[in-house]
Design brief:
Rossmann fold; three-stranded parallel β-sheet; single chain; four-stranded antiparallel β-sheet
């Protein structure tokens, strides 16, 4: 069993055995973010779905109103003028077959990969490499598009792609612990609304099972699901 550090033992004492109101949970998250580096705020949401069935899979994007707090490196796979368009629109890397070759050789110096539809037959060969890292372009994720300029702008501004893992749990970073509690609440509410809005058609019974938030190196803090779902973004603004 892994040894728990003294720092984590101290912050664990601050978390009570109860579900917290969303803003209260976020304030506690900030208080327990005591690592020596800028920590992210993370949400871990267990849903009543079984992703082995196609009608119970959740894969979509959310635009966080206050951004991610991260510098997102965007790569674009396109042809001809679309490569120049991508670069002038703020892409960090752009190319065609040359970029595919670089990726096959292990070059993964990006956080988001956007591709135009005409590149997808060639992108398919990268599936084994990109899939496990969550970098494979997909229409559902908004990363397969002809409007590369808009896609680059959105992902740079705080758009995130996420999916439920094989156990039906969604893991999403919703900002940095340095954000104000109100800004983190705004982002968390946007995430909640997005998950509700994209409820899979095959999801039966209770959809939301549990919600925990934490700093990168902090303890898990249970959030009251019903209060979160009743908290409107306009109230947090």
């Amino acid at each position: 069993m892994a040894k728990i550090s003294r720092r984590l033992q101290e912050v664990l004492k601050k978390v009570e055995d109860r579900a917290y109101e969303p803003l209260e949970a976020i304030q506690l998250l900030k208080e327990t973010a005591t690592a020596k580096f800028p920590e992210s705020a993370e949400a871990h949401i267990r849903l009543g779905i079984d992703p082995k069935y196609t009608d119970q899979q959740l894969r979509t994007t959310v635009t966080l109103p206050k951004g991610t707090g991260q510098t997102i490196r965007v790569a674009v796979l396109a042809k001809g003028e679309k490569v120049n368009e991508a670069l002038t629109s703020g892409a960090d890397i752009a190319g065609s077959e040359d970029l595919i070759n670089d990726i096959q050789k292990g070059m993964l110096d990006f956080d988001c990969l956007i591709a135009t539809p005409d590149m997808m037959p060639q992108v398919a060969k990268l599936g084994r490499l990109l899939g496990p890292k969550g970098l494979m372009p997909s229409p559902k994720g908004g990363t397969v598009t002809t409007d590369v300029a808009q896609a680059i702008q959105e992902f740079k501004a705080g758009k995130l792609e996420f999916r439920a893992d094989r156990t039906g749990i969604v893991h999403v970073m919703f900002g940095k612990t340095a954000f104000s509690a109100e800004d983190l609440l705004l982002n968390l509410c946007a995430l909640q609304e997005c998950i509700d809005r994209n409820r899979p058609s095959g999801a039966k019974g209770r959809y939301w099972r549990s919600v925990y938030i934490s700093a990168t190196m902090g303890p898990s803090i249970p959030v009251d699901i019903y209060t979160l779902r009743e908290t409107k973004i306009t109230e947090a603004a």
